[in-house]
Amino acid sequence: MNKKNLYNRIWAKSNNSWLLGIPLGGFIFLAIGVFILIAMQQVISYTSTTEFCQSCHIGSDTVVEEYQQSIHFMNRTGIRAECVDCHVPDSLLPKLIAKVSTGTTHIWSKITKDINLDNFESEHRERMANNAKETIRSLNSSTCMSCHDFDNMDTDKQGRTAKRKHSTKRRKDKTCIDCHSGIAHKLPEIVF
């Protein structure tokens, strides 16, 4: 078959009207895909705001008030770490998994009124703190290191203990949360 015949076959008007449905269907699927991506981005953006997180936590526990008193909320540099900066991974797939799993848990707790101000300290704080700590540890404190970078630390300006503990050989078995838990939220009181 020569090139001219191939060209004519491709661009010739077809007698089969159903062939029009192929590009039209492709365009419709493309439009639906773009709509879903935009909607998903909007949902991720909205559910990543501190206000969204606070909408469930206020009145259920004391973590919002603790966060507002922390250096991650207000500090001399004016940099604020929002809830998702510490509690949700930055990469898309781990972020979606974290949002779905924690979101489901939070929604269920809100519906059942399982956690409230009366039982938060005595029944839930320690478990919730340990879960958050283990999640951050399992991520190798990558959420911490999205702001705090060992390579940019001037250890000469740190105290003796911090300088020693931040040295490469000292931190190889540790992650940030092992030493720095209780920064944005108070640690649970351990009863012996």
Averaging pLDDT over every residue, what do you get?
A: 84
- Main β-sheet: number of strands, strand sense, barrel status? none
Amino-to-carboxy terminus distance: 88 Å
Helix count from the secondary structure assignment: 10
Percentage of residues assigned to helices: 55-70%
Principal-axes geometry comes out as elongated
Q: SSE order in H/E notation? A: HHHHHHHHHH
Range of strand content: under 5%
- pLDDT under 50 segments (min length 5)? none
Estimated structural class: mainly alpha
The count of DSSP E runs of length 2 or more, i.e. the number of strands, is: 0
- Radius of gyration, in Å, reads 26 Å
Characterise the protein shown here.
One of its GO terms (molecular function) is electron transfer activity. It is a single-pass membrane protein. Keywords: Cell membrane, Electron transport, Heme, Iron, Membrane, Metal-binding, Transmembrane, Transmembrane helix, Transport. The chain is mostly helical and 192 residues long. It has a domain at 84-145. It is built from ten helices and no strands. The chain has helices spanning 3-11, 21-47, 50-57, 63-68, 83-87, 92-112, 120-138, 142-145, 160-165, 176-180. The mean pLDDT is 84.
